[in-house]
């Protein structure tokens, strides 16, 4: 069955650069990001993992656990992490899954089946750049898949986490290009009477489009 928004993130047990991890147990009670990489010692991946390490405090403030994945063995990961730290002047302190057999990649449909050149020496497809945001109930809330050639925008990933966390707590949604602190939209399921109590002074643009000041995030 294909994974969709609202699916429960499948559980797995894997070797990582931080030891053996049971996924559901590891993320219990937290938000989580699971993101995949085609291979170790590749240029785009090296910049991405460095950026995640650089922004580790941003994820920690939001209660988000990070788990990377690359389609190589553990011994390669350990050497690669040294390169990532050196090139980006960071300390990669989050786990990276050793998924040489593509166990997790298959479980989460991360394999590049369409590009027949994107394979390892054994002819097994590499992973594409998948991102899964998973909430504390282990529900998948976002899925983005980038081509192997394009590095991810982690500003966007953090932006979506902020939107989801605010929406879960405050009965709001966020408009196009929303950023932390911008006005938000009153959820369509909230009546005008309720809105006056919850969001005093909200403004109506159309009966179905009502704006209010953004609730504050706790950081």
Automatic annotation (TrEMBL):
Keywords: Antioxidant, Oxidoreductase, Peroxidase, Redox-active center. The active site is at 45 (cysteine sulfenic acid (-soh) intermediate). One of its GO terms (molecular function) is peroxiredoxin activity. It holds the Pfam family 1-cysPrx_C. It comes from the Eukaryota. Signal peptide: none annotated. Residues 3-166 form the Thioredoxin domain. The keyword Oxidoreductase applies. The keyword Oxidoreductase applies. One of its GO terms (biological process) is cell redox homeostasis. PANTHER family: MCG48959-RELATED, PEROXIREDOXIN-6. Thiol-specific peroxidase that catalyzes the reduction of hydrogen peroxide and organic hydroperoxides to water and alcohols, respectively. Belongs to the peroxiredoxin family. Prx6 subfamily. NCBIfam families: PRK13189.1 (NF009668). This is 12426_t:CDS:1.
């Amino acid at each position: 069955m294909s994974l969709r928004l609202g699916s429960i993130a499948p559980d797995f047990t894997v070797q990582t650069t931080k030891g053996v991890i049971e996924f559901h147990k590891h993320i219990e009670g937290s938000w989580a990001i699971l993101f995949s990489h085609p291979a170790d010692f590749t240029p785009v991946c090296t910049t991405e993992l460095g950026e995640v390490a650089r922004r580790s405090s941003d994820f920690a403030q939001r209660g988000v656990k990070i788990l990377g994945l690359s389609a190589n063995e553990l011994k390669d990961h350990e050497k690669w992490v040294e390169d990532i730290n050196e090139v980006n002047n960071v300390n990669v302190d989050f786990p990276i899954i050793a998924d040489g057999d593509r166990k997790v990649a298959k479980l989460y449909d991360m394999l590049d089946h369409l590009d027949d050149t994107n394979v390892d020496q054994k002819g097994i497809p590499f992973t594409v750049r998948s991102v899964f945001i998973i909430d504390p109930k282990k529900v998948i809330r976002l899925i983005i898949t980038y081509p192997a050639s394009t590095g991810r925008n982690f500003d966007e990933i953090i932006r979506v986490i902020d939107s989801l966390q605010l929406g879960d707590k405050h009965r709001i949604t966020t408009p196009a290009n929303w950023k932390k602190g911008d006005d938000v939209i009153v959820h369509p399921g909230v009546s005008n009477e309720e809105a006056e109590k919850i969001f005093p002074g909200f403004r109506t643009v159309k009966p179905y489009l009502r704006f209010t000041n953004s609730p504050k995030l706790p950081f």
